[in-house]
Please model this.
Amino acid sequence: MKYIPLLDELSFFLFYRANQFYKKRILKNSKIHKTVTIGDYCKFDKNVIIGEGTYLGDGCHLFAGKDSSVEIGRYCAIGYNVHVKSRTHDLSQPTKTKNIQRNKRKESNIVIGNYVWIGDNVFIKEGITISDHAIIATNSVVIKDVGYNEIVGGVPAKLIRINESLDLSSYEEKS
Model:
């Protein structure tokens, strides 16, 4: 088959426009501040709240359940391929059965504070609270709450140190 550059350009244009439409639809139908920057290929559920000035890298997945939510504060920096899930399978019935066509779910809210930096490829499980000014290292799995100004990392994420070099005078308010 002969290569036709026009087809490449047309397919790229259509894909790009579809992605832009999807982002606008996310911002229009949710509780996401208009100043939020959303990377490509991100997926959101309805119960997701994102504050002013936050940005999300490509491939982020923010999933909330019917009875739970994901709330992200202001001016957070969230890296590529971050998964935040406030729902999971309940261990009492993790899969569907022949008689029951739906597995049980366990849900709990996730709250991410203001000015939080989350590195690439991070997973945050249900029920977690990450306090203001926290830093989550790349490739971490967060299974416990993260305190104010803490730097955590690893699988599972553990305290590395307290960020004592943070200059709070550069923020408009002390959290």
Summary: The chain has one domain: 5-167. The first strand starts at residue 31 and ends at 32.
